Amino acid sequence: MIRMRARAFTDRWAGPAGWALALAAGAGFVGVFFAWPVAALVGRGFVDPAGQLDLSGFSDVLSRPATWTVIGRTFAQAGAGTIASIVVGLPGAYVVSRLQFQGRGLLRAWMTVPFVLPTVVVGAAFRSLLGAGGPLGFLGWDRTAIAVLVGLVFFNYAVVVRIVGAMWERLDPRSVQAARTLGASPARAFFTVTLPQLGPSIAAAGGIVFLFCSTAFGVVMVLGGRRHANLEAEIYRQTTQLLDLRVAAVLSVVQLVVIAAALLAVARLRRRSERALNITAAGAGTHRPRRADAFALAVTAIVIGLVHVLPLGSLVVRSFRTEDGWGWGNYAALATTGGRGGLNVTLWQALATSARLATFATVIAMVVALLLVCTLARPIKSRLGRRIGAVVDGAVMLPLGVSAVTVGFGLLITMNNPLGLNVDLRSSGVLIAIAQGLVALPLVVRVISPVVRAIDPRLRQSAAVLGAGPWRILRTIDVPIAARSIGLGMGFAFAASLGEFGASSFLVRPGVVTLPVAIYQLLGKQGAEHFGMAMAAAVVLGLVTTMIVVAVERIRPPGAGEF
Known about the structure:
- The longest helix has 34 residues, at 65-98.
- The protein folds into two domains: 1-49 and 328-563, MetI-like (MetI-like fold); 65-317, MetI-like fold, CATH 1.10.3720.
- The protein has a two-stranded antiparallel ribbon.
- By secondary structure, it is an all-alpha fold.
- A hairpin with a 2-residue loop joins β1 and β2 (325-326).
- Helix content is 73%, strand content 1%.
- It starts with a helix and ends in a 10-residue tail after the last helix.
């Protein structure tokens, strides 16, 4: 009797009421720790000292030539970064999706590593390569628009490869074979048959890359400096240096409009891509490399060698250069706080803090993501339910696009007494973990959601006919099938949280400093000792991140999300 009552209770809460509660809990977390802080910060810019709404800031700020200069620079950087990433990414997508060769999985993992590397690591790598005394220092590209563009391609190359490659891997090869049989050359078959089929995934990848490029913060700050600041960097300057919340609020609204448009376009294109993924089974059209594949292989090798290996290799080499010559001195200095005017903590302590906070952030991201995926990825019968699900699904992506500066500063001004709980979250590292969890949440959802959506509904229907309740169906069908994707999402969440820099730079405290923030602080200090320590710390952080990505790639299941 007790077992029957327990089963009735769990089945009741695993039914529609349970799904609604799970959706409300996940959406509530995003609302409290993301939507509210962002709205609070933006709202402060439009309220005068008397507490009255004042929208005159729009006309004032948008009438300044400097504002449009920053907006134009942001669109120029994002457009150039998007085009370059797509052009160099398509050959890489072909190589990892259509060719069979030894080490293919390792190559896929290496392509993904730059995407989750901390921006300060990438900035340090390119500074060591392009700066004075670097191998390419004679080019004079340090702190130029070219350095920013290469840095944007460094990060977003993996986005194009993974999104387009996931589509390419499932294209039915018979249409290309038919075109070749009718006399079409390989180039003509690609441009007339393959490219139109890849159109939705290329557009979706382009939208996401544009989103990432337009909101890039760390790479622009480290590689471009003030001269090449985009909207994100300008919001940071107006907020922290000039304390002009009105200008920051207007710029944040402009950025939100751009992000919302990009996310809407990406969501529609992603739905088209997901429907197209059912064309054939993954890997049905793969083959061993042939002479016709030489161009794609050569372009991929050149891009990886010049854009990825060269700067990271320069970083490793530079980390061994000390004031006294070559050696392990910079790594030994990681156990210290540096020279005069150095850090408040050692870099090993900063790494331990980063690992601890990343663990908490991963737990937060996984719990919220699973609550959302359990509802958003399941068939919803009512029109109202589908609309609510679409809104929540789009809102989950916003933390990737909204200014990290806006999120971090918004959390600072709202979490002194959240919801009247008489608890100040700003005095501990909990707030950093929450911010990192918000950043990792969209990645986890995009990893797990496609697998859950791909589960054959007849499996659930058969289990229900045999007497299984909703909770047992979830436990015995959904969870085992999605288990590897859950592990993959967990790994990516930890890697992304470990290297998060934007929001953490606002929320760190003297005794709670993450390693990315410590590296950025060292890069801004004078002296070869501090620069060498920053190089060594960047190598350690990059190595840890690389090991995590390679490990999780080994458990990547077929049909998993792009990341």
